[in-house]
Amino acid sequence: MVNLVIKTDVEYDPVNHQKTDIYYDGDAKEARGAIIDIHGGGWFRGDKAKDADSSKRLAALGYLVVTPAYRITPQAIIRHLCWIWIDYLTG
User: Fold this and answer.
1) Which stretches make up the BD-FAE-like domain (predicted)?
2) In the Cβ-directed half-sphere of 77, how many Cα atoms lie within 13 Å?
3) What is the model's pLDDT at position 23?
């Protein structure tokens, strides 16, 4: 049985107040890897909550899963979002 840990609404971008959900097995000594689960919506709609089920399934398989909300276009530039996520994860 997996000890699924879910941390919701963790702020990763304090400038734009963007939040992420983090999923992992609390009993695992080490994750199999990390996955950034970017929700669908063509960069102009959608929400991180719609990917909660897939994020839980991936975490149950041993992955650390980060499912961020993000600013929608045209306010956001996608390559900037990716660098923000990488900076947050590598901290």
Assistant:
1) 21-77
2) 3
3) 97
Name the residue among 39, 43, 48, 46 with its Cα closest to residue 20: 48
- State the Cα–Cα distance between residues 55 and 35, nearest whole angstrom: 9
84 vs 53, more confident: 53
- Rg over alpha carbons for the chain, rounded to the nearest Å, is 13
| Max intra-chain CA distance, the chain | 43
Domain count, the chain: 1
**Boundaries of domain holding 54:** 4-90
Give this prediction's pTM: 0.79
Report the CATH number that the domain containing residue 43 is assigned in CATH. 3.40.50.1820
Q: Which residues contact 60 (CB under 8 A, 6 or more apart)?
A: 2, 4, 25
